[in-house]
Structures are given as C-alpha cells and as structure tokens.
Amino acid sequence: MNLRHVLHVFRKDGLEILRDRRTLFVNVVLPALLYPLIGMFMIQVIQLTQAQQLAPPRVALIDLPARVSELLSMPDEDRDEAAKKTTAPTTGLRKTRAAHALAADLPHRTVLALRTAGLELQALARIERHERSSDHQEREGRAREQLLTLLRQDDLAGVVLNLPQHDASAPLRWYATYDHAHVQGDRAQQAIENTTARYRKELILARLGNAGLSESDLSPLELMSQPLAPAAESMRTRLAGIIPLILVVFAALGAFYPAIDLIAGERERGTLESLLSWPVGRQDLFLGKLLVTSAAAAVSVLLNLTSLGVTMALIVRQLGGGEGGFGDAIGTGLGTFALCLGILLPLTITLGALSLVLAGLAASAKEAQNYLSPMLLVVLVAALVAAVPDTRPSLALDLIPITGSVLVLKECLQGHEVPWFHLLISTGAALAVAAVVVSWATRLLEDERFCYPGLVRAGWGRFRTWGTGPDAPNGLEAMAVFGVAVAGMTLMADFFKLAPSPIRIAVPLLLFIALPAVVHCWLGGYRPSIVLGLARPPAISLLRVIAAVPFAILLSLAIGNLQPQPAANDSNELQNLITDLRSYGVIVELVCLALIPGISEELLCRGTLLKGMVRGTGIAGGVLLSSFLFACLHMDPYRFLPQMTLGVVLALLALRYRSVIPCMLLHAGHNAGILLLDRSGSADLLTDLPPLAALGIGILGVWLLLIMPSRRERSA
Amino acid sequence: MLLLDDVAKSFYDRGRGEVRAVDGISVELTGGVCALIGANGAGKSTLLRLITTLLMPDRGRVLVGGRDTRTDAEAIRRRLAYLSSTTRMYQRLTGRELLRYVGGFFDLDGATLDRRIAEVVETFTLAQFLDQRIEGLSTGQLQRINLARTLLPDPDLLVLDEPTTGLDVLAARSLVDAVLAARRPGRLILIATHVLREVELCADRLLLLRRGRVVFDGAPGDLGSGTQFEAAVHERLHEAPTSTTASPTDTPPAAAAPLDTTP
Question: In CATH, what is the architecture of B1-79+158-239?
C-alpha cells in the first residue's frame, strides 16, 4: 500500500465531494435545515391543534341519573390538571366538556326508538352461543343497523341505557354502545368510561358514609411510587434502543451519495479510463475513496445527531417540557460522545466500503442507487435488533457486524459499564468485513470489466461450449449456488415430511446441497477436480486428518461451551428427527449424520463456495466468508461458533491439499465422533477438563496436524 | 520500447458469438510516431487498451520497455500516458488542480512537478484558463489540458486514441503539431486515427488493421502520397482476408467506416 497515493486520492476526491452541491446538500444542508424546519412546522401544528376547541362528542344517556349527565359534561380531570400546570405558551388549551350528554334534548320519539333498539341489541348479544336460534345473526344485524341509523340521524357517537332491574337491591346495570365509525366514537367511549368510574366511586363513597366507614377502610393498602432518576436519564435509557438505529441509518445514508459519486459517477463522467491508466495501485485508489466516503458518513452522523438533538430540545422547550426533555436525553457527556464515535467509526468504514463496492458494480449512478437501496434495508434490519427490548451483546451477535456495534452502543447509552470485550469483538467483526470488502474491491478494480462494464469476455460464452470454463466461478456465482441450496433446504424440505427419518435427513442433503454444486460444475464447464476439489490428495493428508479428528471434536465442544446453550426443554424439529433416527441403529445414524453431510456439505462449502469466495475476495476473505456461510447453513444459533470454527479448519485444509477429500474425512469423522460420544453418554467429558485447557489442546492439535505447513511447504 | 507477441483478445457478444477483436498481432516498435488505421471495429482501441494495461490479452504477451503488462502493470503505467477521444476530466477541478493530481501519481517531487507544470502550461498556452474549473472550458481548451496532462510526466510511450475526434480544424491541426513537437529520442507515440492526412503529416510508421489483424506494416510513404495513399489504404482495408487470417468463428466484416481524409 502506498500511503502517499491513498492520501492523494483522498485529497482530490474530498475536494470534489466538497464541490458537489448534491452531496453537500444531502450530507450537510439537509440535516442542518430539515430538522429545524420540521420542528417549527410541528410546533405550529401542535399549537394550532391545541388552540382548536373541539366539540364534545354527543352521547345519549337514556334513563340514567342526572348526576351522570353532570359528570359527563364536566371537563376531564386530566385536562384540568394539565391546564393548571401550563403557562403562557399553552394558554390556548381550554377547558372542554368531556362529552355532551343528551336525552332531554332529543325528541321523545327518538329516545323511545333508541331505548327499544338498544335493549333488543343488548338482549340478543347476551344470549349464549349454544342457545342461539338459526335467525339470531340476522336479527342481531337488523338491530345493530337500526341503532346505527338512529345514532347517525342525530349525530350521536354513542348511547348508554339503564337496564331495567326487577330487584331494587341488585346493582345498577348500564349498557353502552358506540359508533366507532363516527370521528368521535373513541372519545365518546373514553368519556363514558371515565364518567362511569367517577359515578361508581361517588356511589361507593356514599354507601361507605352511610355505613359509618371511610374511604381508607376500603383501601387498607396504598402504594406510592416516585421516579428517582432524573427524567432525562430515564428517557435516555428508553431512547438507547432507538438512537443507535438512527445513527447507523444516518451513517449509511451519509455514505450513500459519496459512494455513488466517487465510483459510479467516475465511470459515468468518463474519467475512469484515465484514472485506471495512471500508476496508482487499485487498493490505494479504493482506500483513498473509502477514506472520503467514511469521513462523509461520519460527518453526516455528527450533523444529523446535533441537528436532531437541538431541534428536539427546542420543540420540548417550546411546548413547555422544560428541563429534562428529549434534548437533554440525547445530550450525553463528552466521554459517552467520544465512545459513540469510537464505536461508529469502524462501522462507517464498513458501510463506506460496502457502499463503494456496490456502487462499483453498477454501470451508472442510477443503477448504483438501485444496488444501494437494498443495502440500506439490510442495514436497517441489522440495526433494528437494538430496538428490541432486553437485547444485550453476546458473542454470536457481536460477530454480525452492524448488530454487534449497535448493541454495544445501546449498552453505553443506557449507562451500563462499557462492554469492552464485546466492543472489541464487534469492532473486529466490522473491520474484518471491511477488510474482506476492500480485498474484494481491489480485485474488482483490477478486473477489466470494472473499467468496461459492457465487456463480456469470451470465456463467458462457455455455457454454450461445455468444459471450457475458467478455473473457478466468481464470488457472486458461488453465492448464487449457495442461495439455491439454502432455498432448496428451507422451501422444499417439507416435501419429505411424511418420509421416514433417514430419508428426511439424507435426501435433502444430497438433493439440495450436493446436487446444486455438481450441476453448477457441469453447467459451467468447470473441472470437478478443481472447482469441486475432487482431486486425489496425498496419502499423508488422510493420515493427518484421522489423527486430528479427536482434536477437532475437542475444539468443537470447547467452543460450543463458549456460547449460550438452549434450554433443556427447548427442542427443535431437527433435534426430534435425530432422536427418532436412533431407532434405526448406529449404522444408519452414522450414514445419515456423518457420511452424507460430510460429502454433501464439503462439495458445496469447500468446493464451489470456497473456490468462488477465494477468487472474489482472496484467501482470507474466502476462508472467512465460506466458513460463515457454512455455519449459517446449519441454521442453529446454538452451534454457530463451533460450526464456523470447523468451517475455518476445513477451508484451510482444502486450500492446503487442494482437495475436499481430506475435508470430507475430517467432517464425517468429527460428526461421527460427536454422535458416538452422545450415544455412549460421554458428551459431557469436557466437564472434567478446564474450558481453556480443552480449547488450547484442541487448537494445538488441529494446528500441528492440519494447518501448520511442513518444512517443505514453507520452503516452497 | 513496445513488443506485441502473438497478442489476441476476444469478447463474447450475444448476437455474434465470440468476436476476436485482436487476433494474433506480433509487432515490435522502437520509437517515433506510429499510426494505427482501421475501420470501426477493426481492433484499434482494443489494441491500445491492451498496451495501456486496461485490458489483458487472452493469448500472447504485451511488453512495454521489456516489462509484461500481465505482471508489471503498475510499473508500465509509470512510463506511459493515454488519451482517447472519449476521455473526460474531473469537471469540478481546475486545470491546475488536475495537473497536480495527475502529477502526484508519478511520484514527481514538489519542485519537479512545479517545473513540469510550468513547461506544459507554456507549451500548450494554458495560462489563460488554467485556474478555471474544467466544466467551464471549451472542447478545444479541454483537449489542450488533456494533452498537457498526458505529457506532464514526460512518458516514454504516448498512446492517443483518435485524439482529434470532435475538434474543429484548427484545434485538430494544433494537436497534430503538438504531437510532432512531442517527438523525442526514445519516445514512442502511438496514434489511432481515421484521418489519413494526419498520418501523412506525422507518422513514421503505419499499421493497417483489419478484423484484429495487421494487414500492412510499413512507412506511410510506401503506400504513396495524397490520393494514391488514400486509395492504397482503402484497397488494403477492403481486401478479402487470406486463408491464414480467417477464423472459423469470425462473422462477416462490418462495412468499413468511411475514412476521413480531411486534415
């Protein structure tokens, strides 16, 4: 890497971005102006709404005591209290009646009709389901329609009836029904419920008084609660789930336009050909552009956050919220602010790299927008995890780049102790993704099709001439094969639901995992010895693998203990299948759970997928990505880490011996070992070993036997 | 300076199948001005892009100064400059900023870069609009800036792909003059063009390309001058392919574009 060239590209592209009105508008002017403008608009709307005197909903009270009518016509208590507290800016808030009680005002004929229809509807609704006659539904519908017509004729939002009681000592029974299609239907219901509660309380107090009792006799226990933390802090904790989401979305949006301008724009404006003919390394070029994109994203986050905070604080102040409002809630100390930046910075690099590389795939700025829009959705979904209540960082979540970072950010904003370990892992994961993307981008820029996207090399015509393909598929092609396999496993596996367990396990593996890889190899004209890795390995590799199987099992179990385990009663469908498989005997079990997965998954993951990923992103990227996808393929979050570790070991093994056969042996041996341990009840053998010792022995054994290059390999 | 050894490059076209844009060209060029002439689709631009490392050959080798484009692309780019008629420049930069940006990649130290900028500014009389943004320049001014930035690093190999396309008569003539002025010992100037008059004016050597193959390699004077030269060029570009140059996957040749004979 030539740092001078990286900075040279950064300076020039930065200057161009600063002179690009569109990017400046979106990244600087828009956040600075949009939120204050929206804020001012909201204040105006709220104040206008408050100033409006809303007419109380009209409710017909039929045969109810006059006191109910009085209570209903009184202003709502809450409103009273709010009105007392508010000062000058909210003087527009006026006392309004909760509802307009009617009965005496209505014509006698209407009252009679309402009473009749209401009583009929109530009587029909009370009939138990099993006692209902065949025409019950029709009668109920007619009564409902009749009542609605009567209510609408007089613009009534609801009606309350006093139901006749034969026994004078029986409690009062009222029947209320509302027209929820009326604009004030909800308010009418609320007013009636509040009024009923108040009237009930008055009755109770009167009866208590008659019996010589006080209110405290009825409520011997009173719970008084008071918030202790400052309001701003409480609000900050509640907002801690949302703020990381907002920041990440701003970061992605901040990278959006610079990425398009710096890559797709360069191609569209016709400057790319010249740029690529100058003596600048492709990696330097990409890194220079990445610096600009990441800086733009970081600036966008800062400006958006500041503008949003200031605007919200102003709104709260204007509306009388005073101190401790939203503005205070997102206003954090310098330390937290710096920490947020520290967490977000690697994320802006990852998002910048992703945006640039996706824009680089596009032939025009418009096409780049089409590619980047789904990325925003993916970012949003990954960041939404923070908004889920009670989610906290965990090792598995840390490895998902955006999710890990937002969870750490959430912890910091909630005022918890900084989770340094998770911060380290999530930052590492974000930067690892960025490194893989940079590696991919460097190869992309080196490819002649990057400069001339319309160019289709003659080799791409191979689908017409069998057997003339290149050595390996490209990354996207391999991902497509993987996608077909996953889609087959998830969508088509139900076809075998009624089949016996061995078929339910073995056939989908062969049909949806192994077959897509084989068919792709055949269709693409690839050589199976290279793309599927079906080359004969050296005999020593097989001996080494056999010796390494116990260490691989130990490593897998030790790493499995590092991540959360499912609850004892938490069994999934696969677990049930495996349990059922036991009845078929150990041989069938070994074939279905060790041999067939060993062959099928290796053909796909260490064959097609690894070759494609290595071609697309280099060795490190290929190993990591193919292992990640291998772990995802198992769709078991509780086994994610051991699967990914096994994937890394298998990928390194495949690259070392240029064959998947040792991988098949190791994979099958590993599965068989775990299975036999489980059958013999020795799966908990690790409880006798300290976890770190088990991990150390496993890593050492696997390293010495499988990964460490021999002297001859080193010299080569 | 430049050695093309059995260089071939093919593309896949949905309509036509495999198209051999460059089909086994072997040429050695040492210095001076070499013109490439051929109809549209003859493979001129592909050949120049292979030389400038923007494309890699499917077969054969391209050696620039003894270095292979496959293995030493970045070192080769230090020694060459490329300008095509489709080249655009950064609209939001000024001419001076552009020259500084380009010079920065050639590892010229500050003083040398300043001196070289001053030289090209004087050579191409850019002073008047050097500090204006490129978006405000005329086509002729832009082409002068472009030529200045290609000569800024003092390259040994100058590759020009139809540089006078879109220029008026005067601007085109001044560009040809600039090319002539850029000649120096040890420098090879490769220029692809449709304008036969330009070839007669400045080329020491002429390569006629037809369907990705060289059908004439010699001095322009070998084909005569004036109308005789034009007729000879037309005759060679339209003649039927020999059995050795025909390939089974080739499609019938596209109608040759009329060659522009105006200066």
Answer: 3-Layer(aba) Sandwich (3.40)
User: Is the pLDDT score of B249 beyond 50?
Assistant: no
In this structure, is residue A416 part of a structural domain? yes
How far apart are the C-alpha atoms of A468 and A204, rounded to whole Å?
92
Query: Is A460 part of a structural domain of the chain?
Result: no
Distance from CA of A517 to the nearest CA of B (A): 25
Placement of tokens 């600009």 in the chain = A292
Chain B residues whose CB is inside 8 A of the A278 CB are: 77, 102, 105-106
Closest CB to A12: pick one of B55, B78, B101.
B101
Residues B262, B243: Cα–Cα separation, whole Å:
34
Task: End-to-end CA distance of chain B: give it in Å, rounded.
Answer: 29
Distance from CA of A608 to the nearest CA of B (A): 24
Provide the number of CB pairs (under 8 Å) joining chain A to chain B: 86
Domains of chain B, by residue range, sit at: 1-79+158-239, 88-154
Quote the CA–CA distance of A218 and A216 in Å, as a whole number: 5
Name every chain A residue with its beta carbon within 8 A of the beta carbon of B55.
448, 452
Asked if residue A546 belongs to a domain, the reply is yes
Mean pLDDT (chain A, rounded): 80
Q: Are residues A236 and A198 in the same domain?
A: no
Cβ B54–A270 below 8 Å, yes or no? no
> What is the distance between the alpha carbons of residues A504 and A494, in angstroms, rounded to a whole number?
9
Q: Are residues A489 and A556 in the same domain?
A: yes
For residue A578, give the amino acid letter. Answer: I
Q: How many domains does chain A have?
A: 3
Q: Residue A77 — very low, low, confident or very high, per pLDDT cuts 50/70/90?
A: low
Q: A479, A568 in Cβ contact below 8 A?
A: no
Which residues, at least 6 apart from B54, have a Cβ–Cβ distance to it below 8 Å?
Answer: A273, A276, A277, A448, A451, A452, B82
Distances (CA, A) of A608 to A181, A323, A586, A602, A644: 60, 61, 31, 9, 17
Asked if this assembly's ipTM is beyond 0.90, the reply is no
Measure A266 CA to nearest chain B CA, in Å. 8
Per the model's pLDDT, the better-predicted residue between A440 and A566 turns out to be: A440
Q: How far apart are CA A574 and CA A651, in angstroms?
A: 25
A595 secondary structure, DSSP code: I
Mean pLDDT check: name the lowest of A449-463, A516-530, B43-57: A449-463
Which SS3 state, helix, strand or coil, does residue A512 take? Answer: helix
Average the pLDDT over A116-137 and give the result. 82
Q: How far apart are CA B3 and CA B189, in angstroms?
A: 14
Which tens digits make up the pLDDT trace of B22-59? Answer: 888 999 988 889 999 988 888 888 999 999 998 988 88
Are A234 and A162 within one domain?
Answer: no
Is the pLDDT reported for residue A396 higher than 80?
no
Residues of B in contact with A277 (CB under 8 A): 52-54, 77, 80-82
Count of beta carbons in the 10 Å neighbourhood of residue A544: 20
Determine the structural domain holding residue A271 and report its residue range: 230-451
Domain end: A180, A213, A246, which one?
A213
A213, A243, A265 - which closes a domain: A213
Chain A residues whose CB is inside 8 A of the B139 CB are: none
Q: Are residues A194 and A252 in the same domain?
A: no
The CA-based dihedral angle spanning residues B210, B211, B214, B218, taken in that order and rounded to the nearest 10 degrees: 10
DSSP A498: T
